[in-house]
Amino acid sequence: MNTNQIERDSDEFLLDPEDWDRDIAQVIADEYQLTLTKAHWQVIEIIRFYFEQSGIVPELRTILKHLKLELGKDTATRKFIYSLFPYGYGQ
Does the pTM exceed 0.85? Predict the structure, then answer.
């Protein structure tokens, strides 16, 4: 997939959220040399669900709240999120 056709801003955020799909997510992850694991996809799905409902990327505390329900309190930490997404989870 060629993401050169997908418009992004100077911080690499998609200009049109409708351009997002799992393939785009994978290409962007590849640009950052990230291998998307099941845990990555769980976080991404929480973010996408929240974004589709509200039109904004959720705050970290919202993500952690949902992760706590899905994965347990030991995994739902800032350290865990930043170990998955060292460049930030919003992109």
Answer: no
